[in-house]
Amino acid sequence: MTTKLSAYVPDHHDASDAACRGFQPVLELLGRRWVGMIMLAGRRGARRFGHYRAFADGISDRVLTQRLRELEHHGLIERQVIPSTPVQILYAPTARGVELMDALQPLFDWTARNPGAFTHQP
């Protein structure tokens, strides 16, 4: 029994090899546990550590701190220290972080249209 596959015809939307290599680190960061929830929490207005922790129910303080630092390192979240008593530390998405979330919206939409697409292991 043979199966005929449709011929692949590239179009103008194909990413270059360099673009794919550049995208891989982004994909790896976004694929880390809790990163999506943290980014979404920031987009929805979370600013304090406790707000992020409440939004990402089940995340430990250690992991949340680590993820916030990673996102800050990559310029996706900004950390602001307000000298007061007690000291306040706020986290907010940067313009770059908001731009990334906007770019991901079609992927979120695709996921909503394809529920369960990745729930089974091959």
TrEMBL record:
Record keywords, A-Z: DNA-binding, Transcription, Transcription regulation
Domain HTH hxlR-type: 20-119
Pfam families: HxlR (PF01638)
Name of protein: Transcriptional regulator
GO molecular function, one term: DNA binding
Organism: Catellatospora chokoriensis
InterPro entries documented for this protein: HTH_HxlR (IPR002577), WH-like_DNA-bd_sf (IPR036388), WH_DNA-bd_sf (IPR036390)
PROSITE patterns with a match to the protein in the record: HTH_HXLR
Keyword Calcium: no
Domain of life where this protein originates: Bacteria
